[in-house]
Design brief:
mainly alpha; globular; 291 residues; 12 helices
């Protein structure tokens, strides 16, 4: 791998993860808005950003062949549904002061991805990965039994994003083209919902300049890190991407504790310690395989 390629890959990927890590601060500002309306605006205002990037790259010609394939369209529709649900749940969790559970979700996500690859793609665990997954399952079980409630937010976010990545892996379409098509497929539903809100007189888009700005910026906040991530990961080794992805949940964890002042229960702390141990083992397994 060329030095310049790896350098720009690192810059793109690091920037994407850094933006994702800070985004809870932005979504917290939308706490007074309906999370479903915010999610719809994420889709609406992501479209011009994704379209502009694809046009600048001269790759708009790749869209038509993909849309002519019913199989690809069907799979991309399923990924658009998964990512929309993930977006909405993530925003809702932050607005109801359950940001810690989103941090746990994105710590679990790499291990969920490995598990899904085992189930659906026939990948095989090495011993270290098996230990890491067992530890993650132990943390979830402990939260369910000791904490008295199944951590459904964490598991739902991790599983939906894991399934999203799994399905996208099976579709022969570029990352930026695939993202644009996903947005095109959910655009009619998002636009229809927003029109319905406007007719009902409950839309928040024009209720104040602040709300207008927040809702419009939801699109770039969604599209820009995704596009940076897509271009960055194509230029980096698996080990680099695998280790950098822990930035996001770590930043979210710190924001939830020190900025949002969410209480950290003892059972949650022990669960995080178990997950951190699992991820340390998983990270070591990645580095070992790359070597």
């Amino acid at each position: 791998m060329k030095k310049d390629t790896a350098y720009y890959g690192f810059i793109f990927t690091f920037t994407a993860y850094f933006i994702w890590g800070l985004l809870p601060l932005f979504w917290k500002e939308t706490a007074h808005l309906d999370p479903v309306e915010v999610t719809a605006h994420r889709a609406i205002w992501s479209l011009p950003v994704a379209g502009l990037v694809l046009w600048a790259l001269g790759r708009t010609g790749d869209i038509a062949p993909t849309l002519k394939s019913p199989r690809k369209v069907g799979l991309l529709f399923s990924t658009s549904a998964l990512v929309s649900f993930n977006w909405g749940l993530f925003i809702w969790a932050i607005t109801v002061e359950r940001t810690l559970e989103t941090a746990l979700a994105y710590y679990i996500n790499p291990l969920i991805t490995v598990l899904l690859a085992f189930v659906f793609l026939g990948d095989r665990f090495n011993r270290l990965q098996l230990i890491a997954i067992a530890l993650a399952a132990t943390a979830v079980l402990m939260l369910t039994i000791v904490g008295g409630a199944f951590p459904w937010i964490s598991v739902s976010l991790a599983v939906t994003f894991g399934l999203y990545g799994l399905i996208r892996k099976t579709i022969d379409v570029g990352p930026s083209q695939g993202f644009l098509i996903e947005i095109l497929l959910i655009f009619p539903f998002a636009f229809g919902y927003l029109v319905w809100l406007e007719v009902q007189g409950t839309s928040e888009l024009f209720s104040s300049p602040t709300n207008f700005l927040l809702l419009v910026l939801a699109g770039p906040a969604t599209a820009i890190p995704l596009i940076l991530f897509a271009f960055g990961t194509k230029r980096l080794k698996l080990s680099s991407v695998g280790l950098m992805q822990f930035m996001v949940p770590t930043m979210i964890f710190l924001i939830s504790i020190f900025v949002f002042k969410e209480p950290l229960q003892t059972v949650q702390l022990f669960a995080f310690i178990i997950i951190w141990s699992a991820l340390a083992i998983y990270a070591y397994s990645i580095v070992k395989e790359e070597r």
